[in-house]
Fold:
Amino acid sequence: MKNSERIIYGTLLTIIAFVLATLAGRIIKLNVDFLPYSFVTYTTMLVLSIALICSLKKHVKYNIAWPKFKKTLKPILFGFLAAVIVNTLMVALTKGLGGEVESHFAFDVMSPLQFFFFIFICASVAEEVLFRGFFQNILNPLKSKGIKLFKRHISVPVMIAAVAFSLAHLILITSGANAFFIVRTLVFTFVLGLIAGYYQEKYDNNAYAIVVHMGGNLMGLITALVTALTS
Structure:
């Protein structure tokens, strides 16, 4: 498969998997109070991602293994710092521009336990298997090309997957979120995607992208816990 074909097919298949998963979450109703619609979304996304990886195994070199604890500390820390720094800067910018600082709708509809299961775990796993495990890996032959950022090689596959991951969060428009919140989310998810992609590529292991994502969602989990304890 040519590199141009990898970009085209990888992008189209990633979009299709994401759209189908989103539609499944909106259409399929489980009628279980504890399970939000996002459970169906992320489950469908994970299943479709695995199907893509398996059906295109000649073109997608996918590796996942239990990460070594010491090697997870930096990925988790950088994921967490990305959330803290980007959100702090974007909140300050929003206030400076006179905008309304809006929180994620999940805080209003999920308990801390639900947030832990369906955002911290489910979202981290499903989104990383799709955007890094499948999409970034199908672009792997392009990894020699890229840019230097803080003395680190950020490859073309890492950047493309990060952009796709960020743009996927435009789905928040359907939730009624304001423009400032959406822009803040797009910037944060792009930065998080770069970090996740870098560590996946560094260790050739999708698990490191997942732990970066969990690190990024850790601030949200802490916020959910604090909100529940103080309300």
In short: The CA atoms of residues 88 and 215 lie 16 Å apart. The chain has one domain: 3-230. The first strand starts at residue 146 and ends at 149. Helices lie at 3-27, 37-55, 69-96, 106-109, 112-138, 156-168, 179-203, 206-230.
